[in-house]
Specification:
alpha+beta
């Protein structure tokens, strides 16, 4: 027979476990948000798997990266001095990753982007010794 106290203990344990899982999956890093997929209107060629950087109509910047859907990269640095825009990413801290390939979009607010956006962005993944310079597309 399960007592009320045991049921409450089990329910609280389950909620704590769920909170830990959700916290581990929501590490946006320095991005204002991180969502799976590619928003409408961002020109991305899913065949080349290069990061894409897009200035959105509201002045924010969307950076699309590719990797495991369960272990998306985390933005660790964002800098725009008006002449160069640099975004750095680190590998996910998740222990187990799916062997799929999916897009993840990282959004940086217009306030962080500033008034001047250069024509190109440098996107780096230092852990993989990978740096790419890509055109910043515009609406």
């Amino acid at each position: 027979m399960v007592t009320g106290r045991a049921r409450r203990y089990g329910a609280v344990s389950a909620l704590v476990a769920l909170a830990v899982v959700l916290t581990a999956c929501s590490d946006d890093g320095v991005a204002d948000s991180r969502t799976p997929g590619v928003p409408t209107g961002i020109p991305v060629d899913g065949l080349d798997l290069e990061p894409a950087v897009h200035l959105q109509s509201d002045g924010s910047i969307a950076v699309v990266t590719w990797g495991s859907s369960s272990c998306p990269p985390t933005a660790t640095a964002f800098d725009n001095d008006g002449e160069s825009l640099v975004v750095s990413f680190s590998a996910s801290s998740n222990d187990v990753c799916t062997a799929d390939l999916a897009a993840t979009t990282h959004i940086f607010s217009a306030d962080r982007v500033g008034d001047t956006v250069p024509l190109e962005a440098t996107v780096s993944f230092p852990e993989f010794d990978d740096t790419q310079v890509v055109e910043i597309t515009r609406p």
